Structures are given as structure tokens and as C-alpha cells.
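Notebook entry, structure prediction.
Reason for the run: the old model in the group folder had no record of what sequence produced it. Starting over properly, with the input documented here first.
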Amino acid sequence: DGAAAPLRVGPGRTWCSKPRAHEAVVGLLECLFRRDTRCGLMAPLQDTGDLYKQLLANQLEERTLRIKLYVDKNEVVSREELAKFIWGTARKIYEVISPKQDDQRKQAWKDAQGMLKSLIDWSSFTPATFHEPCVLSVVESKVVEVLEAYKTYVLTGEVKTKWPPPKLLGETNEILVVDKPCMYTCTYGTEVPKRGLKHLGEKASASMLLNGDNAAIQLHEYLALKYNYECAVGTRDFWKNEPEVVACTCGKCGYCACTQSGCCNRLDKETSGVMIAAKSCLGFIDIRAQFSSRHSLEEGGTEKYYLCLCHGDVQLPTKPDERNPHWNHTLKDGRGRVEVALYNDKERKTFPSYPVDDRLWVDGAPPETGGSEGKMKEPRGDERTCAKGQYALTFYQPVAWFDLAGETYTMVHLQIITGRTHQIRFHMSQVGHSLVGDAQYGAPFSDRKWCPRVFLHSYQTKFREPFTARWFEATSPVPQDLGEVIVKNLGAPKSSAPGLTFKSRRLHEELSSFLIQYDPSKPLLYSHDAPANVEEVMRKVEYKRQIEAAWKGGGKGAVLALQQSAMGKGMELPAGPLNSKGFPMRPGKQ
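New structure, fully documented this time:
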């Protein structure tokens, strides 16, 4: 610290003529030795191969405390002094790590650069000479935040971020499945992103999104910056080209796969749970075909299950309630069946059902409004599109019942057959049970005082892996925040349905009648089918690439010729009944 007075150091003792020099030496000794609580002396640290990590953590703590004094006193450091402090911290980190020693330390230095990139421009940094432009313009509190996060990473290996990253549920050679946190958005495919590589270039990273000012992170942007599979790399290349508009928004082709990192499904901003991404463009086309609403109506199609908390005492219907051809609420196979077409009113951002929207009637107004006997347009098209609305089908089953201030709440397990926007929220409100926190569909605004988001979670998705046709199940345990909402506000359920249990991230003893903590040693993405033959899979991939090329080159005729050629070479067809997408039907009522 610039002390010029002579200094002598002895075992367990220090002498000096300047207090600052004394403090500096004590700090240095504490970096090199661990204090022995039994005798009050300083015991050497044991070199376990990670000695530099312990020294580094001590250095970071000392540097953090030094700048934190200014933050606590609400004092401001000059730009030059703060820049020298940040550069000096980086230099000390470099000296402790010594990245030239071995590959492990070289990687540690890369990690340090990643953790401190919001403070330093590493392209102009050199540990030998201070260069002020290499230090970014930041305030003292930001320096404290970054250094504390890096210290946590050094000690635990965990990256402390401002916003939670999506947890990896599992992956195969063809698919990546993540657990989407609340507030992540899925508005890809309609516009060129405002963040990402387009503006930040190669400096962009997933950690920048996780530590940014905006909690509404685009999920596909995070995946593109975090991973290096084909669709993620293609999305980064799409950003580099800086297109002014998106050429295609069908969400089903290879081009769209490389504008949304291969994401195959969408969830509302406040909905958490299972998200599936295809790693390859051909795999994306395959999975998107599985997720199409028409395909989901068949056995062997995708199965999508959710958990939600609803207002009211949800019970299975005892008799059919059919109000018109497009509004039906019945009981089927022990579950409630809601078949209500919905209309997307973009101006109001709601989905009123057909009977209450007289714009959907061809002749006159609906009887409920006092008009003449009206007639509705019939469903049309492959997607069973009804007039200006869409066909939608949901199954539900009540799980547990709670009481709060004389009002009943019900935990419900749902399966959606079609995948319409706001489908669950709309259908449950139609049968008189709005979701907790969902003021847009009839829930009171007071819900937000004890439930900060719409209580809806994508619990499980079942689908077939591209090219192998293996049946996979991806499960996202109930997140901690939703479990705590129930425990802190509703307590234990007054009753629960027998035989229905679900996994949760944390142990909630009050909810053990229907929620059990998941076993971390068991996978959350698994398949009951046998592993696929690699050669057979690659053969199918190559054949599909040829089909795509033939279609682009010669149209339908070229595709038919290629198919006949393949059959002539003894290509085996799948055994058993097939659905509309060519997959063998999976046995079972669901």
C-alpha cells in the first residue's frame, strides 16, 4: 500500500511503524495462512490442488470490503480511482490464478473473464500496465455486486445471477428439454430480436441476459447464447445477418428453426415448466408436426399436462352441459372434458367463447342476447377452425381442496389436446373456476397480494424423439415459489384425491398428500423404449435430407420418385397402425 517504513515479520507476530502497512501485511498473511483457533497462531493452508481458489476467494473478499465501505457511506469514488481499483483487482486475480501454469488454471482465468466482463473490456486489458479505457463505466455498487458474485462462484462453483437460468431437464442427440422459469417469454418467430448478437456482437452471452435489467428474457435468445447445437448456431447466424424482417413465420420449417433456437412449444410469460427444443432443423420439423393440434387428437400424439390452482370447489360434472355445438362440458373416462371453441380478440387480448360473441353468428344474434334463433358457421379446415375462432379441447381432474377465509380453492391436473393461446385459462374460467392470479379471466385483483403470478405450471410433456420414434417423458417438478404460495397462504389441504401425487422441487410437508420431493438421482427426461440403433437413425436422417432437397429441386414428382427408389432398395416400413404423421400409435387410452 505504498508504505516505505522498514517492516519485520515473525512467526505469529508483526511489527511495523505505520498502521496501513500493518493492515496490509495482516491481510496478506490471512491470504496465505488460516488462523488456528486452538492456539491463536496462523496455520498454513493445505495444498489440495485448489489452493489458488482459497487465496483468490480471500483476495476477492478483501477487495469487496474495501469498495463496500464507500457504498455503505454513500460516498463516490472518482472515475480514475475506481478504474485503477478495478484494474488492480483484475491484475491480482491474474497473479493468483497464474493461467500459464496448466490447463485447469487457464480455464479458471477464462471463467474469471466471463464473470468480470461487465467491469472490464478484456480485449484491451493487460496485467502489466494500467490502461484506463479497458475499465467500463460502472458505479461502486455494481462493482460490489460483480465481485460478490464471482467470489460465490469461486467458493461454490455456482453462478449467482440476477435472474434464474432455465434448469436443464435432460437432452439427447436430437432434443434439449429445459425448465422455463416464470417471466421468460416465448414471443419468437414474429420479429427480429432487439437483443442478442445483432447489437452486442461476439461479446453477447447468456450471463449478460441473466444479469441484465430486464427480467423478461426471451427463452430462445438464452438458448442461442448458451448452447451450440445446430438450431442455436443458426439463430446466432440469423442475428449476424441483421435482417430487417423475418422472411417466414410458419413456425414449422427449417428457416423458422433457426430464428427461434429450435424451440418447439410456447408458454405464457408467467407460466413455468417444460420447454422442448430440437437440436437440428430436420428434428424441429418433426417435433413441430407432433405438436400440431390435429396430431394431438390422435393416439400416439403429444401429451401435455399442467397443474393449476383455481377458485372454487372444482368437481367432476355429473351430467352433460351442452349449450350449443361449440360449447360442451361433460365427463369422460373419469375426467372432466371441456370442449369450447375460442375466439382471439386481439384488441381486448381475451378469448370469449362463441355463444357470447354475436359477430360470429351468420343469421341474427344469439338467443341469449334476445335475438332471433341464430346459426353459427361450421368448423372448417384441417385445424378444425370454427368461423373466426378455434376448436379447443381440455381434460381436467381435481387433485386437492383448500380453504382460505371461507373461500375454497382447488388444485387441478389438466391435459390439453389442442394447444391454443390461453387455452387452460379460458376453459377453466368458462366452467366457473378462474385460475388464481388471473385477473384477465375473472380472478379478483386481490389474488396478487398473496400469489404474484398466474398459478399455472407445465408439469409434463410426452412426445416422440425425431427419427428414433422413442417415446419420451419430460417432467418439471412444481417450482419452489408455487409450493410456498400454497404453504404460506392456504396451508395443508382439507382433502385430496386418492392416488394422485406429483413431484416438487422442494419438500413441503404440509402438502405431502399430493406433492412429493423429486429424487435428484433419477432423470427428469427418460424413455421406456430401447435405445435406438445409431446407423438406422443416421440412415433415416440422410433420407429425410434427400426428401427435403428433392422437394426444393423438383417438387412433388421428385419426392415420389425418391420414395419409390427407397422402397425398391428394401426400405423397411414401421409395423402396426400409423397416425397421420407416420408414427406408430402408442397403445393406451390417452
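Summary: The longest strand covers residues 393-404.
The old model has been moved to the deprecated folder.
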